[in-house]
Input
Amino acid sequence: MDRVTGYWLNEYRIDGFRFDFTKGFTNTPGDGGAYDAARITILKRMADHIWDEVDSTAYVILEHFTDNSEERQLAGYRRGMLLWGNSNYNYNEATMGYHSDGKSDFSWGFYGSRGWDKPNLVTYMESHDEERLMFKNLQYGNSSGNYNVRYFPVALNRIKLAAAFFLTLPGPKMIWQFEELGYDYSINYGCRVCEKPIMWDYFNQEERNKLYQTFAALTKLRDENEVFRSRESLVDLWLNHSDGIKRIRLSHSSMQVIVIGNFGVTTLSINPMFHHTGTWYDYFSGDSISVLNTEDLINLAPGEFHIYTDKWIEPSKPGLLTGPPLPISFFLSQNYPNPFNSATRIDYALPAAGRVSLIIYDLLGREVRRLVTGIKPAGAYSVSWDGQNRLGRTVASGVYYYILTSDNKTLARKLLLLK
Output
């Protein structure tokens, strides 16, 4: 082990190592989750050799997932090992709009919530092992009235909301590939470990590009202001409310910050608990507000969030958080992706309640699959088709039509299935 780590550090000048499945670095029987002093000794010895004999600045990162008392000890050892912090499930429950039983409480993604002394928790919302947030938003998102998480623009804005509560927490973070553009191919596309489509064209889609710029604005905010990085920052989290309203309070000698957001699907109110009265600045809008009473409530639409600072800083590029318009016309989108070979998404909107059908037909006009049928309220909707007919059998490659009908109105588009 020492020869291997020394060789890569010396010959290739790498920055360090991320060791996989380090709870398996033991001879102790069991599933590896319980505290294991022998394993700690092994990992400390490996780190000591790297830091003392090869490179004192090298990173030692562990995918560990064991008892917190063990992870805390490793995180605090000498300069500290960095440990993987999986927050995928909780952030995704929040973006989908589900909050019962603490499902959307992602406070464990902050090192302070674990009682760690050093900020050595590498938190992530997505990784190579986890499902994509956008995929589950579009497939399983919650809804209320006209607000539907499964509607593509809404689903993207929910990722902006999550990023605001992800990148403002002190401690290192990992952003998985294309997460910042709303990657929506399932981890099981093809198969779990199959190659996934590389969607460079996402960057040229306006709404996805706004998500990218939102991530960029948040990382800029983080990089340029110590309150979001410092071990000296006081962090107060309120992330476990049953209706999805959430708040982060940050306090540092350089600045005080309030982050509030509504992960629910209805309009909600929250007390931001501003640290003091006076002028506060909204990072994304560039506006300022005058706080006269720190007990006053603020109403938030579903998916709405704000980052307030008590010190003026250059605001983000305007227009990044522009919400999707409510449906005012009968609308049927072009399916995406198109062509497709596993599943494709179809968005549609209804300006008024009515009986609706969305049906797939082949080129001979024969019905293949009914995707939607019944009475729907006004609103925006998203459904998917997996390429199967009404009998559950995968249909042949080729061109198909999908037709949306509501009352006396009809819209039709064609799609292409390529296997």
